[in-house]
Amino acid sequence: MLETKSRSTTACVVGGGPAGAVLALLLARAGVEVTLLERHGDFLRDFRGDTVHPATLDVLDQLALAEKLHARPHRKIGSMGMIRAGKRRELADFRRLNVKFPHITMIGQWDFLDFITGEAARYPNFRLLMNASFRDVVRVDGRVCGIRYREGDEEHEIRADLVIGADGRRSTTRVAVGLRPRAMGVPIDVVLFRLSRRDDDPPEGITLRLDGGDILGLIDRGSYWQSFVEIPKGDGIRALRAAGIEAFRNKVARLAPFVADRVGEIESIDALGFLDVRVDRLRRWHVPGMLIIGDAAHCMSPVGGVGVNLAVQDAVAAANTLVEPLLRCQRAGIPVPRSSLAAVQRRRTMPTATMQLLQRAALRVDLNGATAGTGSAEDGAGAGAGLIGKLMGRVIAYGIRPERVRNERILAAAGGGGAR
Ligand SMILES: Cc1cc2nc3c(=O)[nH]c(=O)nc-3n(C[C@H](O)[C@H](O)[C@H](O)COP(=O)(O)OP(=O)(O)OC[C@H]3O[C@@H](n4cnc5c(N)ncnc54)[C@H](O)[C@@H]3O)c2cc1C
Fold first, then answer.
1. Which of 39, 207, 344 to mutate to test the pocket of ligand 1 (most atoms within 8 A of CB)?
2. How many angstroms separate the Cα of 235 from the Cα of each of 38, 239, 301?
3. Does the first or last residue of the chain, that is N or C, have fewer Cβ atoms within 10 Å of its Cβ?
4. Is 60 exceeded by the pLDDT of residue 289?
């Protein structure tokens, strides 16, 4: 669905990740004219968050979409654990939660986004622009009233009553309006790779394997293990290169002996994905006419794999708060008040900041535990991890103060029309 002319819309969402796609779906269901821009031609990106948490599944269930999502290829993971000195300890056991979806659904993020935008496309007031790269905002009298985007060699403009920047951790929408995140220090980066999975491999679900200061993460993706190794921030990647691929393969084999027979699948250090781990947050998530949500407003570390869930929670909170002002704007031209944008930030700041605090604490505990070397999972470092882990069980599944869809128009919408 390509667009070649200038146009106008009520809400223009920049970025077709979990935050932008879910927000666009919710607004479309409520009858808001919404345009979603994605700079890529598809959603196919490897090594992104592929976890759909119980809180997000609950939201999809409210929209009668959870069952439909689960009709797509997926895996359900009931716990997150840690193996240290040969002993496994559950860091978070979702199976013990008394909820409808006591598991994390592992589904490729591309599949999740394809599903969400496919659902949104059932509403005539939803428009998806792929290959459309945000360039700048359009302002009138200091208020954001649209965007310019590039598609191929052409530049286009969309006038919008509200622009929502959901363009991820390297957001250019926030830069365009002079908003800069405050970075919080984290000690690690992460390298990512795949290893094939065999049917007789141990049932690890999501597991951290710790030994001698090293941490390997394994996520069961059915035919393969989505794998990552933590490295020290800064010099870590250079040290990996200096040590060479064989040393890296040996490290992986030492941490998870059952994959020793296939570490040769890691072709080279250059073939590893690299994640610059960040934790940051905007002080202000909005300017007149524009709101920032998701990773663009707050980048999360990989601890607990909560980034997707937080992005979706932001989208739900934004939709709950903004649907009525947007519909008023659509019907009567009354601008969305800045107080509504501030209300979204107010709603989401505490859950986000608390999660970032917990993530940073957990990073310290994990590293110290690993550095302590041998000993059972029940020893000193293990007890620290257990305490945090106990709290994280519920917190990973639901976050702090989980969002539910509260707007009746969104809930009542049936595909193909939406409540107008
Ligand atoms: C390697 C890696 C592994 C991760 N693993 C997990 C995990 O296991 N679980 C988890 O929950 N989270 C994980 N995360 C984090 C998770 O992916 C993010 O927190 C989540 O995707 C944030 O959603 P978002 O919609 O805010 O941003 P994003 O998912 O980053 O989406 C932003 C979208 O905006 C688009 N965009 C960017 N710039 C422009 C532009 N100029 N114009 C138009 N579109 C633009 C991008 O193409 C992208 O599609 C991982 C992240 C990485 C990088």
1. 39
2. 33, 6, 18
3. N
4. yes
